Structure formats: C-alpha cells, structure tokens
Structure prediction request, 455 residues.
Amino acid sequence: MNELSLKLSVIILAAGKGTRMQSNLPKVLHHLGGQTLLERVVNTAKQLNANLYVVYGFGGEDIKNNLMHLPVQWVKQDALLGTGHAVMQVLPHLPIDHQVLVLVGDSPLVKVETLKRLIEITQNEGVGLVTTEVDDPTGLGRILHDQTGKVLEIVEEKDANTEQRKIREINSGIIIAPAKHLKTWLPNLRNNNAQEEYYLTDIIGIAAKQDIYVHSVLAESPQEVLGINDRIQLSKLERIFQKQETEKLMLQGVTFRDPNRVDLRGEVKTGIDVTIDVNVILAGKIYLGENTVIGPNCYLKNVTLGKNVEIKANTVIEDAEISDKCVIGPFARIRPETSLAEGTKVGNFVEIKKSKIGRGSKLSHLSYIGDAIIGDEVNIGAGTITCNYDGVRKHQTIIEDGAFIGSDSQLVAPITVEKGAYIGSGSTITQNAPANKLTIARARQVTIDKWKKPE
Ligand code: UD1
Ligand code: CA
Prediction:
C-alpha cells in the first residue's frame, strides 16, 4: 500500500460555484461538522500520503485563504468547462508514472478505506471508479455494463435515454486512472453533449473501447458518496455525519441522553462513562475524562475535562483546562487561557478569563475574574469583581491560598490578597491586603437623624 501511494497523485475538484447553494460562498467552503467540505475531503485524502492538488475557480482567493494550512497544491481552472477540463489543468504537474485519483470537493463523507480499496484493485496502472446504488439516481451519472458485467461507460443524466435513466447504479464522481492515459485521453475529449462540457466520465468509455478493464468498487453505503448540491442536502448529510460521530463515541462509553440533539464539530476523545445531555455542542479539540457529566445546552470548544467533572446546564467554556472533580454552572462562562485545579466550584453567572484557579476554591455566584491567579481553598464571595483594566492595560490580581473575599468586593489590579486574608464585604480594595488579617475598604454606615422624607 505504501509503495503504491508513493506514486499516487490525488486531484480534488472544487472549482464549481455551487449555484444551487444560493450563496456568495463557494460550495466547498460551507461547513459540515464544523469543518468546510473541502477540508474534510483533503483530510481524508491526506491519509493516502500522496501529492494533493485542488482545482479551484469560483471564489478562488476565499478558498485559498481559508485553507492556507492544508498541504495541497492549488491549480486554477479559469473557465468552468467541465470535470474533464478541470483535471486537464493539473496534467502538466502529474508525473507520467503516477496513478491519479480524482475526488470531488462536495462529497465530504467518503471514507479512506474505500479509496484504498480502489487504489489496491487498480494496482498502480488500472482504471477504476467508485459506484453505488441509490433509490433516486436523479442528476447523477449512470453506469452502463455489457452482458458480462463489464463497465462500458458512464452516461450523464442529461444525456441519458429513458431506459438508461432507470439504472440505479451511479457514478460517485471518484475515478482513478494512470497519468500516462490521462495525458493522451483528456486533450482529446469532446464537449458534444447536452451540457457542452468536457466530461471526465468520458474516459471510462474510452478505456473500455481500448479494451482496458474498468474496475469498479462499491461504496460502503450510498451515504458515503452522497454529494451536496443545495442546503437541504447539506443538512441531511450533517445529520448522517452526526449520527456516525455519536455512534463512534457511544461505542467508546459515552451516553447521549438523545444522540439526535447534540452537535459534534471537532475532535472528541473521551474516557468511559461520560454522559452528555441534549443540545450540547462540542467544538475543536475536546477531551472528556471518565465519569464526566455535561448538562443540557452547553457549548465547549477546545476544552480538556478531567475525571468526575460536572458541567451544569447552559455553561460555555472555551480554551480551558478543567481538572478532576470540578463543578461548573449552571450559566457559567469560562473564557480562554483559564485553568481550574481539582475540585474547584464555579457557580451561576460567573465569568472567568485568563486565570488560574487553585484546588478546592469556590466562586459560587455572580463574579468576574480576569487575569487572576487564585490559590487553593479560596472563597470568592458573590459579586466579586477583579478590576483588571485601567482603560489602557490589563493588570493581574493575585489571591493567595485560603483567602476569603467578602461579597460585592472590587479588587483593583494590580493587587495581591495575601494568604488567609479576609476582605470585608462591599470593599473596594486598591492596596495589597496583608495575610491573615481582615481588611475592609468601604464607607462607614451612618444614619442621618435629621433626615426627612421629601414631601
Ligand atoms: C459528476 C459526474 C457524475 C457523478 C456526480 C457525482 C461528471 C461529468 N459527472 O456530476 O457522473 O454522478 O459528479 O457527484 O463528472 N468541477 C470543477 N470544474 C468544472 C466542473 C466541475 O472543478 O468545470 C467540480 C465541482 O466543483 C464539483 C465536481 O467537480 O466539486 C463535480 O462537478 P458537478 O458539476 O457537481 O458534477 P455533477 O454534475 O454532479
Ligand atoms: Ca455534484
């Protein structure tokens, strides 16, 4: 397999506009499971260790800018004259001894195993394609066989006669052929068909006529090679993808209260006995430790959760590390560059940004903690605010182990509350608070005897 793939070039066709998407965005830049369609296909193709070419045209700069990080070579197709014409643009780049696999950018669910089967069966020199049988073949290329079952040609819907249109075996769009053949066949394609396009699919007929056997590989399921032409199909594929992803996780020990009501938009790794309630969105890189419970309506992006963590309803966490046994929410917001040590408790309407919170500390209600380092066993009273911004710069707040911050206090940074210090509630603290002492900074309470209610 590896030896074979050394001589493999993969071309991904992505120059079309996708008119039926009704969008300013090129079709392949629409998202499925949090990734663009093109990125999904490229990531699948990447696993083949081949040279990757993407043929782009409509919205080309957008495509390149969005996918800068992908290991591909970009080839522009200036006029959209058909799939055969698209592949022709790459011909000058293709080594003569390479096998060339063509994929379509709008079929994001294709599996690498299927591609490997096609590569293996054609043995670095044959011609082949991936087909499937569908209930409704409308719009797709039909596969024509002779009486012995040999593939003869592909007929596009618009060129097919009534009998041919009844054929339910269709072309997935995935085709493989040696570069040496493509270099002679493609320049000779003609566009005398209903769409006046140069069809890549015509090479199948050409091969058959030259007595070159055309191998066909059946996709694992029709869903695997379904293409996207409009937003209805995109939404259907999204659900198929979500079902696959949730089923993978269920087999790894995750309980979904309802797998139809979650969205997985990233790479999720988990321990066993994880429970995820409805309307949870997991994005980016996620790790969920053993026995973790995520309540309803939570959004987590790039988050690591330790073991036995409980995330209660309506919590949002981004770019954070949460250690074992933390309890967060309901209605908490943990922003980037935050880490919570073991057993931390973060309650409702608490926002934490770019802060480290020590073991067993409690921030139970209504607080803003930003640019802070908080030690172990600290108690942050309701309504505590770290005033971290002077209008120009951000400043740090340090709260050492065992400190107790009374409710409704403001800590004007830069500032340190030392070990075991107590801050009286309602204080505005502007200077460091010494260890193990009570510091209060608020106006003294007075009652005005002469006061009279206004008449
Ligand atoms: C194509 C196949 C059809 C197959 C179907 C599966 C041809 C002639 N037909 O039809 O047999 O059943 O895919 O989905 O190949 N593209 C370019 N440049 C072009 C034209 C298209 O890059 O000039 C790209 C599109 O962006 C798209 C892919 O090629 O990613 C397929 O093109 P599309 O027009 O969707 O072909 P279909 O009519 O679906
Ligand atoms: Ca298509």
Q: What stands out?
A: The chain is about 15% helix and 35% strand. Residues 13-16, 55, 77, 80-83, 85-86, 104-106, 140-141, 154, 156, 170-173, 199-201, 227 surround uridine-diphosphate-N-acetylglucosamine (ligand 1) (CB under 6 Å). The two ends are 93 Å apart (CA to CA).
